[in-house]
């Protein structure tokens, strides 16, 4: 076997392969012998037909099987010999294939990126303190009170903290917002719309200009759509709203007492505080671990600059877009709005896809170097957890995964997790104070 490799560009190679004539003839003889043993021809018992008759009868089939066998074995041997990580086989072209002559063919492949691993042991990682304060618990309890709030009509002016029930129509540059985006129907006109009279609610500055109004009052409200506004077509522009205040609703919160605690099936307020504290502690622990993992991943990936296989990036991009669209649809986002933001969705998905594909290659390389593996027991444990999560029988999930080649993806997820665990275990960790949550 002779193999030469040509680089056609980043992550693309052309392999020229040649099998000597002796190997070609030996394979013809081997395949022909197999056909003679198994051939069923009229007038002959299986395996008893003359070789010449079998060869003539199955000449085309024998030729095709010989070519496939030589192609498969030679190609696989070449990949091992040249240590090429094939992502996708793009094309196989026959150059010369005849009995008694060398078999020559060309294979074009998309290959794994070529890169050197940075130093991945001793990464500098900051670990935020995972502390839950009394103030955190009180804030969480107040959030629970908000969920049980009652709203009573108030015959007075609108105050901060109330809910304003409004009718409105909105324009931008003198035109309805739907002229900029057909999906912006809800931003253009609404009746009996409930909006919290708090800073930042709905559109920043909207409710500020309604404070002091009473039911029946009409006001012209001027707003500046933020640069990162949900409807990009009007982001950074000025808007004008004609607003009628229909009703003022006063928010009534339940008292923080034993009765309130029992509404959560907890025997006392102290027990409720304890349960809330435990939940918050779990959340900050998860945030701490998530932050450390993100730092470890970035510390390894960012120094590596390499081209990525286009097919792998596009496949991951399509998967992410499908998930994003599905999630938005389930959350009730109108199809028109999804369509209007399709370019933004693609760009976001493509960026994440590149990161994931890159991480996959980098983590596999680290796993190979450090002997990190995923055994069958770990794989099945993850499948059982997924079955519980999706509330489906394990056997059914296994069949679905086998049908859709899903085990490879799960195995890669576990491998990636173990590599990141390894990075953190071997990192230089510095304890720092927790960073405050960004204000809304």
State the main characteristics:
Alpha-Beta Plaits, Chitinase A, domain 3, single chain, alpha+beta, Trigger factor, domain 2, 4-stranded antiparallel beta sheet, 13 helices, 3 domains
Give an overview of the whole structure.
With 440 residues, the chain is an alpha+beta fold. The chain folds into 3 domains: 2-111, Alpha-Beta Plaits; 150-252, Chitinase A, domain 3 (Roll), CATH 3.10.50; 261-432, Trigger factor, C-terminal domain (Trigger factor, domain 2, Orthogonal Bundle), CATH 1.10.3120.10. The chain is 47% helix and 21% strand. Strands 6, 7, 8, 9, 10 and 11 form a 6-stranded antiparallel sheet that branches. The protein has a 4-stranded antiparallel sheet with strand order 1-2-4-3, with helices on both faces. Strands 5-12 form a two-stranded parallel sheet. Strand 7 (163-172) and strand 8 (175-176) form a beta hairpin. It starts with a strand and ends in an 8-residue tail after the last strand.
């Amino acid at each position: 076997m002779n193999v030469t490799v040509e680089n056609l560009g980043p992550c693309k190679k052309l392999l020229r392969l040649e099998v000597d004539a002796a190997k070609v003839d030996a394979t013809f003889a081997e395949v022909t012998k197999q056909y003679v043993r198994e051939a069923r021809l009229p007038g002959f018992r299986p395996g008893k037909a003359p070789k010449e008759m079998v060869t003539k009868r199955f000449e085309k089939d024998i030729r095709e099987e010989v070519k496939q066998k030589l192609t498969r074995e030679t190609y696989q041997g070449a990949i091992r010999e040249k240590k090429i990580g094939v992502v996708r086989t793009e094309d196989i072209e026959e150059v010369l294939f005849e009995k008694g002559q060398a078999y020559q063919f060309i294979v074009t492949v998309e290959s794994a990126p070529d890169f050197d691993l940075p130093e991945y042991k001793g990464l500098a990682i900051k670990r935020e303190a995972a502390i839950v304060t009394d103030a955190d618990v009180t804030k969480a309890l107040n959030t629970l009170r908000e969920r049980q709030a009652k709203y009573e009509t108030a015959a007075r002016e609108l105050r901060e903290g109330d809910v304003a029930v409004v009718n409105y129509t909105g324009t931008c540059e003198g035109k309805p917002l739907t002229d900029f985006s057909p999906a912006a129907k809800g931003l253009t006109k609404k009746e009996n719309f409930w909006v919290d009279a708090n800073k930042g609610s709905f559109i920043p500055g909207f409710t500020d200009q309604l404070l002091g109004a009473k039911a029946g009052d009409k006001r012209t409200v001027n707003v500046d759509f933020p640069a990162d506004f949900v409807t990009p077509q009007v982001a950074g522009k000025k808007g004008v709203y004609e607003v009628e205040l229909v009703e003022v609703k006063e928010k009534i919160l339940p008292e923080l007492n034993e009765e309130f605690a029992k509404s959560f099936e907890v025997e006392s307020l102290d027990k409720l505080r304890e349960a809330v504290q435990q939940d918050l502690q779990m959340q900050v622990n998860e945030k701490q671990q998530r932050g450390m993992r993100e730092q470890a991943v970035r510390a390894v990936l960012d120094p590596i600059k390499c081209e990525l296989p286009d097919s792998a990036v596009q496949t991951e991009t399509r998967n992410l877009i499908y998930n994003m669209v599905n999630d938005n649809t389930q959350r009730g986002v109108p199809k028109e709005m999804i369509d209007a933001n399709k370019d933004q969705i693609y760009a976001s998905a493509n960026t994440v896809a590149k990161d994931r594909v890159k991480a996959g290659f980098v983590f596999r390389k680290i796993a190979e170097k450090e002997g990190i593996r995923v055994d069958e027991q770990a794989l099945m444990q993850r499948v059982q957890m997924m079955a519980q999560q999706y509330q489906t029988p394990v056997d059914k999930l296994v069949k679905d995964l086998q049908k859709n080649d899903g085990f490879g993806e799960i195995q890669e997820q576990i491998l990636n997790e173990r590599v990141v665990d390894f990075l953190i275990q071997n990192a230089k960790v510095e304890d720092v104070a927790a960073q405050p949550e960004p204000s809304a």
